[in-house]
Amino acid sequence: MIVRDRFGLGWRPKLALGILSNLDRIDVVEVIADDYFRAPHRERRALRTLSAQTPVTLHGVTLGLASSVPVEVKRLDQIARLCADVGPVSWSEHLAFVRGGGIEIGHLAAPPRCAATIDGAIANLRRARAIAGIAPQVENVATLIDPPGSDRDEATWVSEIIRNSDSHLLLDLHNLHANALNFNFDPLDFISRMPAERISAVHLAGGKWIGRHEAPRLLDDHLHDVPDPVYDLLEEVAARTPQALTVIIERDGKFPPIESLLDQLDRARAAVARGRQRARVLAA
Amino acid sequence: MNPFDFSGPQFLLFYVIFAGLVIGGVVFWRRRAELSAAPPRVDLSDPYLIAYLRAGEKEVLRVATIALIDRGLLVRDGRQIRRAEHAAPDAVHRPIEKALLKKYTRSGEVSWIFEDDGLSKVCESYKHTLRRARLLPDESVNQARLVRLVVACFVLTGVGFTKVLLALEAGRTNVGFLIILMIVAIVIAVKVSFPRLTENGKAMLEDVKSLYGGLQDRATLQSPGGASVEPMMVAAVFGVGALTGPAFLSANELFPEARNRSTSNSCGSGDGGCGSSCSSGSSCGSSCGSSCGGGCGGCGGG
Amino acid sequence: MNESRLESFLAKIYVDENARAKFLADPRGEAVKAGLTPQQIEDVVKIDRDGLELLAESLKRKKQGGR
C-alpha cells in the first residue's frame, strides 16, 4: 500500500514568495486561522486562491478546547465560516486552555490534567465537530509549568481524550521533546502510548533554553531550526503509524533563507522514509 | 405615468437615471457571469505572469528590464542599456529575459523594448496562459460581453430615439441634449463592457496583492544586486514604483511613467488595493498574541 | 464548576503580576480565597514555582511584542 505523506510549512507573509516559488517541494501549507477571523472578505478570498494552488490546512490558537468550560459557540462559528470560505483539507486546534474567569491568558496553557478537563475537551470536540462539520485534529502543547491540579501524566491525559472523541492527534514533536526534557519523561514512551492509528499530523519546530543556569527549560518558540532529536522522534512515529501523515514545520520568525526550511523539510521526508522502511522490514 | 409624456427636462433626468440603471445592469450581469467560485490554478511565483495580469505587455518588459539590470546582466548608461559582457542569453531561463539579452547585444535605447515585435511575441505566451485561466477575456468571454453591450445599446437607443421621434412629431427640435446623452451613455456602456481583466482576473490580482502583502512592507528593505528575487516580485505585483529607496532609483528613472502609475495604484485606489494578509494591521485578533500572520509563537510553554 | 475555578485562578496568577505576587507570598490563603477545593489547594501550594515564573515572564514578553 502506498502511503502518501505530505510535507509542508506554516504560511507566513514573509515566507509567501519562498513558499509559492517552491510548491514542487511543498505539499501543503498551514494557515493560522485566527489571523483571518476578522479579516476583510478580500483577504479570506486570497486564502481560497492559495488553497487552489496548494492544499491548505487551518490551525486555530484561541478556542481553548481542553477546558472544563464549554467553548463559546460564536468562536466555533468563526472557524466554521472560515472553513466554508477557504475549503481547507483539515483544521486543527490545541489541547490547551487560553482563558479563565474572564482573563485572556494570551497563550496556550496546559490545563490541569484531570477527569474534568478530559470530559470538557471531549464535549468541546463534539461541539466543534457539530458546528464546523468536521472534527479538528488536536495538538499536544508545550508547557513551562507542570499544571497543578493534575492527577495523571500527559500521555494518559492526551490518549484518553483521543480515544474517547472523534478527533485525531496532531502530534507536535518539539512540544513533546520540550516537555520530556523539562519534566523528565521518555518521549518514546509517550509515543508508544498514543493510539497510533489516530495520529494524522505532525508539527516540527525549534526552540531555545531559558531560565536559571542550573535548571534551564526548553522553550518552544518556533524561532529556531528543528533539532536532531525531533527528527528521531519523527522516524519513530512514522515507524508506528500505518496511515499517511501531514508533517508541518512551524517557523514564526528569524526566518532563514527558504532553502534552509526546504532542506529541513527534506530531512523530515528522509526521517519518515526511514521509519516507514523500518516498519516494512519488521512486518516482513 | 408614461415617461415618453415627460417634458424635455423631465425626460433628460429620467434618461440619466434610466441609462445609469441599464449600465449598472450590464456591469452586474457581466460580473456575475465572469466570477467563478473556484479560483484557477496559476503559477503565482512567475513575476512576469503577474506583471502581465496587472498591467499587460509593457509592464512585463519593464519588470524584466529592471530585473536584468538588478542582476547585472544588463548594464545601464543613462537611457541606454546593453548586455553585460559576461551575460549570455543561456544564463537565464525565462524566455522574456533571453529575448531581452539577445536584443541588447549592442547598446540601445530602453524605449526600444516597447517597439520590438520579437519581445511582443514572447509576451504572448503570458496572454495565452491568462486567457486559458479566464483571468483575461478569451473569445467566448468577449462574445458574451458583446451580446450584453448590444442589448444595452438597443435598449438605450430604443428609448432615446423613441423620445426623439415623438419630440420631432410634436414639432420640437431641441433634441440635441438627448442625443448627446445617448452617445455618452453608449460610450460608457462600451467602456464598462470590456474591462481588460475578467472579474476572476480582477479578483486574482487582488488576491495576489494580498498574499504578497508582506513583500510590500519590506520594499524599502530590499537591496539591489539580484541576490533576492523579492524586488522583482514587488515590481511585478505592486509596480516598479513600489521599489522605493535610493537603491532602486535607477529603476524609477528608467520608467517614470510606470512609477507614477504604481503610486496611484497603491492601497486604496485603482484596481483593488493592497489587501496584504495581516501585514497592514488588519485583523490579528488572536488572544495568543500571534503577530499578523506570524504564527502562535510557540505552541504553549509561553 | 470546581475545575473552572481552578482554571480561572491559574489564568489570573499567570497573567496578573500583583495576583501572582500575592499568591507566592501566601499560596494557601489565596487559594482558599479563590474557593478552590481542598485537593486543589494542596496542589497549588506545591506549584512549580520555577515554571510559574518562566511562564509569566514569557507571557509578559509576548504581550510586549517580543518573543
Overview of this structure, please?
The complex is a heterotrimer of chains A (284), B (302) and C (67). With 284 residues, chain A is of the alpha/beta class. Chain A is built from 9 helices and 12 strands. The radius of gyration of chain A is 18 Å and the shape is globular. The two termini of chain A are 14 Å apart. Chain B is mainly α and 302 residues long. Chain B contains 12 helices and 3 strands. Chain B has helices spanning 8-34, 47-55, 57-70, 95-103, 117-132, 139-169, 176-193, 199-211, 213-217, 230-238, 249-254, 256-264; strands spanning 74-77, 80-83, 108-109. By secondary structure, chain C is mostly helical. In chain C, helix 1 (2-15) packs across helix 2 and helix 2 packs across helix 3 (27-33). Chains in contact: A-B, A-C, B-C. At the A-B interface, helix 1, helix 2 and strand 6 of A face helix 8 and helix 9 of B.
How would you describe this structure in keywords?
heterotrimer; A: 284 residues; alpha/beta; TIM Barrel; eight-stranded parallel beta barrel; two-stranded antiparallel ribbon; 9 helices; 20% strand; globular; C: 67 residues; mainly alpha; 5 helices
**Which oligomeric state applies?**
heterotrimer
Count of distinct structural domains of chain A: 1
The tally of strands of chain C reads 0
Element pattern of chain A in H and E:
EHEHEHEEEHEHEHHEEEHEH
Radius of gyration from the alpha-carbon trace of chain C, in angstroms:
12 Å
Query: What's the total helix number of chain C?
Result: 5
How many separate domains of chain C? 1
> What is the SS-derived class of chain C?
mainly alpha
How are the strands of the largest sheet of chain A arranged?
Answer: 1-2-3-4-7-8-9-12
- Secondary-structure element series of chain C: HHHHH
Mean pLDDT across the residues of chain A is: 96
Query: Can you tell me the residue ranges of chain C where pLDDT is under 50 for at least 5 consecutive residues?
Result: none
The CATH superfamily of chain A is known as: Divalent-metal-dependent TIM barrel enzymes
The major pleated sheet of chain A works out as: 8 strands, parallel, barrel
Unreliable stretches covering 5 or more consecutive residues of chain A: none
Q: Given this structure, which CATH class of chain A is correct?
A: Alpha Beta
Q: In percent terms, what proportion of residues of chain A is strand?
A: 15-25%
